[in-house]
Specification:
By secondary structure, the chain is an all-alpha fold. It has seven helices and no strands.
Amino acid sequence: MKRIPMQYLVALFASVVLLAMSAGVFAQAASDNDKHFVEAALKGGMSEVELGKLAVQKGASNDVRQFGQKMVDDHTQLGVKMKAVAGQIGVNPPSMTSASGMALKGKLDVLSGDSFDKAYINAMVKDHEDDLADFKTEIASGSSPAVKTAARQGETVVEHHLAMIRQIAQAHNLSASFRKPNPCTLASVTAGR
């Protein structure tokens, strides 16, 4: 049997120790606020997927059904990316959406036709405005580079969704905004339609 030289064993041991330490550093680099943001973003994304499925099933208008499907597709993709970040910073992904997400789904579930469309549109405008503010806050004040990168990616998607749902709200003669829209984002959505 061939003996492994001591210097190789020391190098291997040192590598294992450094790897273990670096994993701890990545988890420690995330603040409690970063971890809360990731958990909230995952719960919010789950809610958007569930509500999107509901819009696909119950939407009276084609634009509401199409937007619902976009929520399912985009928030599923964002959720996959955010779960990877959660793993990096030591956050266990939630298994269910927030209480407010469940309450909104319950409210929408009993509506139909134009009443459903209006309630869904208004909820999506408000949700995306709130989400965008949360993503911007994380980008500005987060401490984890991984979380901030995910927040930047999510911000782009949420801005696009917000511009889309504001246009849908206008088409349905609803108040399209609780906050001032970004004219650059609105222009890009109009051009992409």
